[in-house]
Amino acid sequence: MRRRAAARGIGRRVAPEGVDRLYCAGSDQRRPSRPSGGTRLRRADRRAYPYPVLSELAVAVATLIAAEPVMAVVHRFAFHGPLWCSHKSHHEHPTAPRLVRNDLAWLWPLLTSAILIMFGGPVLVGLGIGTVAYAGAYILAHDGVAHGRFWVPEVIRQMTVFRVIAQTHHLHHRGGRDGIGATPFAVYFAHLEYRWGLSARYRAPTKLCAPIRVSRSDPLA
Ligand SMILES: [Zn+2]
Ligand SMILES: [Zn+2]
After folding, report:
1. In a domain, 166, yes or no
2. Is 15 within the bounds of a domain?
3. If you average pLDDT over residues 165-179, what whole number do you get?
4. Which of 70, 90, 190, 211 is most buried, by the most CB atoms less than 10 A from its CB?
5. Is residue 121 situated within a structural domain?
6. Cα of 38 from ligand 1 centre, angstroms
7. How is 76-143 classified by DSSP, letter by letter?
């Protein structure tokens, strides 16, 4: 009975996954094979995601859509809350062609996305690509079209979607350079946020900030 079981392989210790079968065949010593991390990751990805490019694309599109409400919430509760002193640099100098302190806030999501794209599997790569795409779309609509901080082709400026974005974003800046911002906080969904009164209970930040130093060469100072 035991011989028959042995012949069928029952009760025999099976080499765990990752153990080099060829090496074990002629020896009792078991040495784990060491494929490179990238190779192992790609094999696992292939099993979990038979079409990695489609998976990346699907996650990137989902991230791109989800990023807008997330950004509106961050803008409302973080930038017009604890990070107000940094964000204020944008409200005081909305059309500045140079970098202001508020622009540095993009460094975190962009650096994180670069790491995800370089080292992540399909889901994380899609997340990174979607975040970078949203950052580009936001900067184009907000800094380029709405504030004119850099040149944007007239054909893009005249598109209905960008004209609506520019008009609704100027509502956020009512009160001018001394203003403390107002609803809406979104950019692409701003008209819906405004129409539905989603940020109606907004209270102005009361945090006292040090005066923002501006170089004398800045024509907008
Ligand atoms: Zn703005
Ligand atoms: Zn703001």
Report:
1. yes
2. no
3. 87
4. 190
5. yes
6. 42
7. IIIITTTTHHHHHHHHHSTT-SS--GGGGGGHHHHHHHHHHHHH--HHHHHHHHHHHHHHHHHIIIII
